[in-house]
Design a protein that fits this description.
Number of domains: 1
Low-confidence stretches: 78-82
Shape: globular
Number of helices: 3
Strand order of the largest sheet: 3-2-1-4-5
Largest sheet: 5 strands, mixed
C-alpha cells in the first residue's frame, strides 16, 4: 500500500484529492510542517530532507516528492499503461527535479 505524507490545507491537498478520486488505496500520514514531525512524534526529515509535503511512498518503497512528479507516477500506474515500476520511478524523479528547479531557480 502507498503512503502519502501530507499537511492539512498545504499543497499536498491536490495530491490527496487526486489519489482519492482515483480510488487509490493509500495510507494518509499527517505531518506538522512547523515542527517537521509526524503525528506519532517521529522526525519527518529522514523521509523528506527538505521537510516539505507531499511525499508519496510507493508500493516499492520509493519516496517521491513534488505534486507534479507524484501525479505523473499515478497516471502511469493506471490500468493500461505499460511502463514498469522502475521506469515510472525514474521519470517521476526527473519531474521532481525539474519542478524543484522551476520553483527555486538555479541561482
Amino acid at each position: 500500500m502507498m503512503s502519502l505524507y501530507f499537511a492539512p490545507l498545504a499543497c499536498s491537498l491536490a495530491t490527496r484529492i487526486a489519489l482519492y478520486e482515483a480510488g487509490a488505496h493509500v495510507e494518509y500520514i499527517q505531518v506538522d510542517t512547523r515542527s517537521k514531525r509526524l503525528r506519532d512524534g517521529s522526525d519527518f526529515y529522514p523521509i523528506s530532507p527538505l521537510g516539505q509535503v507531499p511525499v508519496l511512498r510507493t508500493e516499492e518503497g520509493w519516496l517521491l516528492s513534488e505534486n507534479t512528479a507524484i501525479s505523473a507516477v499515478r497516471g502511469r500506474s493506471l490500468p493500461g499503461h505499460a511502463a514498469g515500476a522502475a521506469r515510472r520511478y525514474v521519470a517521476a524523479r526527473q519531474i521532481a527535479a525539474m519542478a524543484w528547479f522551476y520553483r527555486h531557480g538555479t541561482a
